[in-house]
Amino acid sequence: MLRTITLRNYKIFGVEQTIPLSPITVLVGPNNSGKSCLMSVGEFVKRGVANARSEVAPYPTLSRSLRRPAVGDGAMGLAWEGEDFAYSTVLEPSGDGLRRRAEVLRYGESVVFSDDPVRPAESAGPITSIALSHRLQRPFAGATIEPRLHDTALKSQVERAFQSMWGSRLVKLSIDRLREDSKTTTSPTLGMDGAGIGAVLSLWRGFDPDRSDQLDAVLRECLPEAKRALVSPADEAERLRIWIEQKDGQKFAPEELSDGVLFFLALAMHAIDAPPGALIFIEEPEQSIHPLRVRQIVDLFRRAVAARGCQFVLATHSATLLDEFRDEPEAIILLRRGPEGTLVTSIAREPRLMEALEEHHATPGELLINGFLNPPS
Amino acid sequence: MTVVALACENFDYDGAVFLHLLSCLWAPVEPWVTPIRFQGRNHVLKYLPTFLSVAFDAGVQYALVAIDNDGGARRHPEHEPQHRVEEQASDPDDGCAVCCVEHVIPSEWREPARRCCVAVPVQTLETWLLYLRGDPPLTPSPEQVYSRTKLKKMFFGPSMPPVATRREQALLMLQSPHALDRLRALRSFRHFEAQVAAWPRPDGT
Ligand SMILES: [Zn+2]
Fold first, then answer.
1. CA gap A234, A356 in Å, rounded
2. Between A24, A295, A327, which is nearest B152 by CB?
3. A138, A252, A305, B22: which could join A23 in a potential S-S bond, CB 3.0 to 4.6 Å?
4. Contact between chains at B160 and A328 (C-beta distance less than 8 A)
5. What is residue A147's predicted lDDT score, i.e. its pLDDT?
6. Rounded Cα gap, residues B152 and B123, in angstroms
7. d(C-alpha A115, C-alpha A124), whole Å
8. pLDDT > 90: what percent of chain B?
9. How far apart are CA B134 and CA B179, in angstroms?
10. What is the ipTM of this complex?
């Protein structure tokens, strides 16, 4: 589980900001305050950081994530910390793209890997790039494996430091995708927008009864009429359609189900599907969902935390959702836009807000509704 | 089973705990099924009259209001029999929580046929649970910890477990040997029990 993520010159983040992370972190801020930027970090690390090695031509698409104008030395900084490790990398502009300037991984006081020209004395070995090398280890990449990663101790340290990011997902559901029938595929995955839930459910039904049982249990618990989710071939060839079967035997296709039920189903599947230790970013999990059911969604995320050490970052405008974190004020992160980029704090660090919560019986949801969490920049 | 309307912080957690306590101290009970949920002391004080009126219309005869002091017990006195309800309730921020609740209970719930009891476990439900766990002895005592967040974390750890886990852990503590006898050492628990004891039982005793 990650304790912090630190960003500098990343999209609308400018001056370095360290975001404290809880098992479930909730991001609150006005539109354009940086919530979505922070939510995109996992995708950037997966797609970008691994490509930004210094020996090859820089990738132009990466440079779109560099803040312009950049503050300070003009480089992008990305770092994260776990219980016992800290990883950081610095990416600098190079031609049309970015290239890696420095990369350091520490476990406690010990430097596992360092490629930092500013502090070369710490350099700990010939791995060109941890992120790249680690990516090459993934079975589908099929490329050369860096010699030093045969060192199993080092390999496991690198894997542990990257587990949250490599397993990360960004979930931003779209009702149109959820109503579409899924394409059949040999290795179905849950799309960030909800595409493919039919194919994934079909896989669970066939080969992963534990997950499909979990889903049915959640549906029965949270949707009073529901019995289970089903999947069957759609009218169009090689497409799968989901259905919700009610306790009375009636079945409803996606076009007959409410937006709220479809969003709930997709979030429940994401919570059940989240890999161990993964960091799951979810944009507005409350959308179209009844406020009372929002509490149940949060509880599903808590179960994934308890069962598999998953970690969630939720961007929200929901007072009900925030109130579920009344007893974890450190998990409520406030973002606002400053002259040199996004500024981050948590409710727990704001004495006035804590006074309102602890002394005047306010709840975080009330503070949100009444504007106290979104002070004008 | 007797139906009880429950107004409490978290229906699936605090609610389950109070149902268990009522079943032990009084008679078997089941909750009045309602989608109404509460969030925080202010919310309870504001919506309790509506909640109780809706329960009255539904024919419910027993109600239990269990609220947390929201860490405010440092300033809110613990309820004393000699409290004057009006006086305490005139300061909803700093008045005694029991009296503040008593003040908003609608008149139809003050008749002998309808009974409403109020439980304020000093700070939060975890005050009682920590007292029961009491191992190692906590200094200061749970009643003297004034932050609700701190109390919740002292009992459950740094991050809140799923509600089913919270419920299991709480019920496990209450089912430990002599749990109720031990809780009787706490004034807030004795106050709760005295109200329940005064309820006429469903069998007329
Ligand atoms: Zn009083």
1. 54
2. A327
3. A305
4. yes
5. 38
6. 10
7. 8
8. 49
9. 11
10. 0.89
- Please give the interface size between A and B, counted as residue pairs whose CB atoms are below 8 Å apart: 59
- Let me know: does A229 contact A254? Beta carbons within 8 Å: no
Find the helix packing angle between A291-308 and A259-273, rounded to 10°.
10
CB B29, CB B16: distance < 8 Å: no
Closest-CA distance of chain A to residue B127, Å: 14
- Which has more pLDDT, B172 or A156? B172
Query: Which residues of B lie closer than 8 Å to A, measured between beta carbons?
Result: 35, 37, 39-43, 70-72, 75, 93, 147-149, 152-153, 159-163, 165
A82 forms beta bridges with A2
DSSP string, A45-86: HHHTGGG--TTSPPBHHHHTTB-SSPPTTS-EEEEEEESSEE
More confident site: A285 or B98: A285
d(CA B175, CA B180): 9
Percent over 90 (pLDDT), chain A: 67
Distance CA B106, CA B94 (A): 22
In degrees rounded to 5, what are phi and psi of residue A242?
-90, 155
Structure-token pair, residue B104? 């908003």
Strand, helix or coil at B28? coil
pLDDT reported for residue A99: 77
Whole-number pLDDT of residue A158: 79
DSSP string, A209-249: HHHHHHHHHHHHHHSTTEEEEEEEE-SSTTEEEEEEEETTS
In a 3-state reduction of DSSP, which class is residue A328? coil
Tell me the chain A residues in contact with residue B91 when contact means C-beta distances shorter than 8 Å.
Answer: none
Contacts of A361 in chain B (CB under 8 A): 40-42, 70, 72, 93
- What is the distance between the alpha carbons of residues A45 and A323, in angstroms, rounded to a whole number? 31
Residue A363: which of B39, B153, B162 has the nearest Cβ? B39
User: Contact B149/A329, CB-based, under 8 Å?
Assistant: yes
pLDDT in tens, A292-323: 899 999 999 999 999 999 999 999 999 999 99
pLDDT at B172: 96
Ranges A124-128, A191-195, A344-348, B176-180: which has the least confidence: A124-128
Amino acid making up residue B176: S
* Neighboring chain A residues of B147 at a CB cutoff of 8 Å: 358
Q: Which helix (H) or strand (E) holds A25?
A: strand A24-28
pLDDT tens digits, B54-77: 999 999 999 999 988 765 656 667
Q: What's the gap in Å between B86 CA and the centre of ligand 1?
A: 10
